[in-house]
Amino acid sequence: MDADALAALRAVDRDHVWHPYSSALTPGDPYVVESAEGVRLRLRDPDGTPHDVVDAMSSWWCAVHGYRVPELDAAVRDQLGRMAHVMFGGLTHEPAVDLARRLLDLAPDGMEHVFLADSGSVSVEVAMKAALQFHLAAGRRRTRFLTVRGGYHGDTFSPMSVTDPVGGMHSLFRGVLPEHVFAPRPPAGLDRPDDDPELVAWERTTRDLFSQNAADIAAVILEPVLQGAGGMHVYTPRVLDVLHRLAREHGALVIHDEIATGFHRTGPRWAGDRVATTPDILCLGKALTGGYLTLAAMLCTREVAEGVSVGEAGGLMHGPTFMGNPLACAVANANLDLLAARDTEVEVARIERRLREGLSPAADLASVADVRTLGAVGVVQLREPVDVPGVTAAAVARGVWVRPFRDLVYTMPPFVTADDDLDRITDALTAAIADVHG
Which of 35, 158, 254, 305 could be bridged to 113 by S-S, CB 3.0 to 4.6 A? Predict the structure, then answer.
């Protein structure tokens, strides 16, 4: 791209393109991506300087195999030769049926039905709607959900309502969104012992809160073990056990939001695999297509599906236009093949070891409050909000693309990232923080 073309592109972007979580009046100055291959992006910075950078973000956690993956490219091209899209109402097709079968084979025990959606947020909308319909069909007017503070479940209306209403991304809408029941954020630490005083106190408070609101609670909704965009907060699986038991005791359903954590991002295939109990509803997305096309899914038990279907409506009242898109389903099937062929759980364990070792020096920086890793997730938490443009530029100058938020500089690299590129990521993040925050 020559200088004139680059300038013209930037001008239109600045004047007319509204980027996520940004102002239309005072837009930022985004980097221009010219191409991507493997785990690298070819960028132009705001001055027009080219950079070849390692993608430390997997394009918001979905491009788990990197870019221009031959097997995934081939799946898209092959499906294009048949059909790119067809409505899913009254029709079905092989890619969608194959994907549903394979997801059920991989899912926690008890999942028997798959509802395909077009984004992770929509899959949460569908899950919440299914939980409400399940109780309404049985004559129970349960209209509230219980979750824990610090969570994030998407940017559409219902998911916003179960995102932390005070410190979360959608606190602006407090008072407009439905008011649900928020237990305290669980104490941090994956390996926190069950008799830890903070955990015992959390359990006592949560039990009381659940009991006080049990008659209204349709379901518990959680990001198992790792809260993503709410702060990359890691908590013990004991929390899942407690909330599963409370839900069972009081007749509520359990929804696991594994959009960010599923497909081995935290180590096991599902973050919820760390406990023996299984959810009634499971939401999947992000890595489902290897970052190629938008697709998500809501899985549920036969009990939930039958409970919804016997109600007055006669079915689940949702139907996205691009539900079951054949291109997306075809590439999702190819993605599942790659995840199996590459022994992904072993690869994630390798990444976890490398991130833990490589990020450990960041703990010595004066600006750093905490360093933590879980699976293919590495997090450096600062004592102050991140200077996002400053840290981003400092990392790009060292050959790494990173997109911090709030007080977090973090990485969720593609699962195929080699050890030398993982070292480049951890070195760049640590140096960028030192340069900008000290």
Answer: 305
Q: Is 286 a catalytic residue?
A: yes
Residue 23 annotated as lining a ligand binding site: no
Report pLDDT for 172.
75
- Which pLDDT does position 175 carry in this prediction? 78
Is 202 annotated as belonging to a binding site? no
Pick the catalytic residue from 152, 235, 292, 410. 152
Q: Nearest Cα to 123, choosing from 285, 309, 12?
A: 285
Task: Give the SS3 label for residue 253.
Answer: strand
- H/E segment holding residue 224: none
- According to DSSP, the residues that pair with 382 across neighbouring strands are 368
Is 31 a catalytic site residue?
no
Residue 185 neighbours by CB distance under 10 Å: 19
Residues 268/349, Cβ–Cβ less than 8 Å: no
CB within 8 Å of 92: residues ≥ 6 apart: 324
Cα dist. 266→128, 139, 373 in Å?
A: 24, 39, 9
Query: Starting from the edge strand earliest in sequence, which strands make up the sheet with 378-382, in order?
Result: 368-373, 378-382, 408-411
Say whether 78 is catalytic. no
Does 257 count as an annotated binding residue?
Answer: yes
Query: What's the pLDDT score for residue 1?
Result: 81
Q: Write the DSSP string, 67-111.
A: BS-HHHHHHHHHHHTT-S----SS---HHHHHHHHHHHHHSPTTE
> Does 279 count as an annotated binding residue?
no
Catalytic hit among 2, 4, 21, 191:
21
Catalytic residue, chosen from 55, 286, 292, 421, is: 286
**The tokens of 22 are what?**
């940004």
Q: How buried is residue 23: exposed, middle or buried, by Cβ count under 10 Å (0-12/13-18/19+)?
A: exposed
For the question of residue 21 being annotated catalytic, the response is yes
- Determine the straight-line distance between the first and last CA of the chain, rounded to whole angstroms: 36
Q: Which residues of the chain have pLDDT under 70?
A: 167-170
Residues with Cβ < 8 Å from 121, sequence gap 6 or more?
Answer: 153, 154, 155, 156, 159
121 is in an annotated binding site: yes
